[in-house]
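Quick check before the chapter quiz. The format below is the same one you will see on the exam, so make sure you can read both the input and the output lines.
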Amino acid sequence: MTGRWDKPEPILMDEEIVEEAALEQLSQDQAGRIAKAEGIDFTEILKLRLEYRNILRIDHLWEFTSLAKLELNNNLIEKIEGLDRLVNLTWLNLSFNSIEKIEGLGSLRKLELLNLTNNQISVIENMDALEKLTHFCFANNCLGQLDNVLYLRKFKNLFTLNLRGNPVSKDEDYRFFIAAYFPNLTCLDYRLLDQKTKTEASIKYQYVLEEMRHEELQAQQAEEAEQSQKAEVELHMDAFVEYLNGTYLFKSMFKDDPEAETLHCIPGVASLLQTFEHQMVELCVQLFEIGLAEHKWRETEVSSFFSSQTGAVTDYQQKASQVLAKFEQQHKERIVELQQLSDPDQLRVKINHCNDEIKQLCNSLMALEVQLVSQLEDIIKKFDINISDMVGNFSETAQGIFAQCRDLEDNYHEKVQEIALATLESVAKDDPEEDMTDDVKRLFTDRDKVMDAVAVGHDNHLLVINDRQTQLVKRVDAWKVALIKGIQDKELKQNRMRISDIHRYVDHLREQLDELL
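Here is the expected output.
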């Protein structure tokens, strides 16, 4: 019988458990109102305590998107999971569980305190997203490699660390090691790290630290360069002109041209090709610069639109707040007056009058909503026209530049064709150029093959140019359509929500009156 009580029965974390925990965080008044309503709005809960419940698995937390503090200590949890939606979490306590691996924390970018004390974890890992971490409690786990602690050096705000009870904490050099590698740490294993310890540690590990700092600086510079390059590519893609600031498009024209290299060996073609490349790159760079400028103008237009939209909504909210404030003050007075009436007939008359006032309030709020919708429709319509003009002008400009690219290709093709015909004649007369290679001579013994190679190359080059033009025009148009549709869909959703809020509030007021009867 004793063994049965020593081993707790695990339970699954369901909606009933989280709802009960959520209710515990609310005041009695809030809990009472919720008990009469349909349910709790989990998105408004900021703290949740689920300790000492024998929970086996983290679940049913996806609606707690505003949650800042979560207590899950002293349970039977074996895996860190189910936290992906808790993006506002700053405090997470998972101590005294059965966790063996750090994982599932990728969405918790605001987390400041992480408590994993008394688990079965042997490696500190998978915490890269926790950029704001200040407290890390990892006592009484299975960490055996002191070097693994260096993983935490990336957290520049970390000032409290607890590794007590891990195998690494028994290392005779443990405290100096931590003090040396974590100079910003103020507290280790519940004890302050004094300046004397830090100074001794920095002297002891001086040369190792210098080398590590040098390596970290190099790694940081490489990462910054990579991030900068990535941001630059993303900007170019957002402007729809990626890889047009160099030779990429030109070189891609000849990439799948099997006879191109041989043809370029014909005397006179190399100089033509060089000129063609120079002119082509000039056009691409011109389009690239126009694309970046147009992107900046579009971003300015988008920003201006959202500013106008926000201004309209703010004005609506201010007017609605004034209407509500005036009504609520009078409504409270009317409710007090109704509560003092004892005559049922008088009470009904007064309640009918109150219902008329509520109806008038509803009409006033709805009128404001209609005004807002009309105003926003005008703003969106104007924005649609402006952004459509900008996209249309950019597409037209791009098509004009791509047409010039095709003209260059036509000109290059005609001259290569002329040289090819002349070379065919000289080879046929057995009077080829002296610097002509054997491969070129062999190719030019077959007239059809030569002319086919020139024609196919020309078609392939035009196809590459046409494909890039089509890609640009389609993408910029798709961006505009998605942007406008997204704005319209969002506004429709918000309009329905505002109307729903008005009706809910009006229903609440009428229910108040019904309770007086």
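If your answer matched, good. The CA atoms of residues 13 and 59 lie 6 Å apart.
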